[in-house]
Amino acid sequence: MIEFRNVSKYYKNNWLALNKVNLFFEKGQFYYLIGKSGAGKSTILKMIYMDIFPSEGEVIVGNYSSKTIKQNEIPLLRRKIGVIFQDFKLLKDRNVYDNVAFALQVIGERYQNIRKKTLEALSLVRISHKRNSFPYQLSGGEQQKVAIARALVKEPFILVADEPTGNVDPEGTKEIMEILFDINTKGTAILMATHDYSLIKTSIGKVVGLREGKIVKPEDIFKLDLSGRKE
Amino acid sequence: MIYIFQETFKGFFKNKSMNLITIGTITVAIFIFGLFMAGTTNLLNVIRIAEDRIEMVVYLKEDISEEQIEDLQKNISTILGVQSTQFVSKEEALQQFKNDLKEDATLLQAFETNPLPPSIKVNISMSFKTPEYLKEISDKIKIFEGVDDIDYGSEWIKELDKLVKILFFIDIFLGIIIIFASIFIVFNTIRLTVYARKEQIDIMDLVGAKETYIELPYIIEGMVYGFLGSLISTLILYLLVETISKKIPNIIFMNSNAVFFFIFFGTILGFIGSFLSVKQCINEIREMKRDDNLKRTLKKSF
Ligand SMILES: Nc1ncnc2c1ncn2[C@@H]1O[C@H](COP(=O)(O)OP(=O)(O)OP(=O)(O)O)[C@@H](O)[C@H]1O
Ligand SMILES: [Mg+2]
Question: What residues does the ABC transporter domain cover (chain A) (predicted)?
Answer without folding.
Answer: 2-227
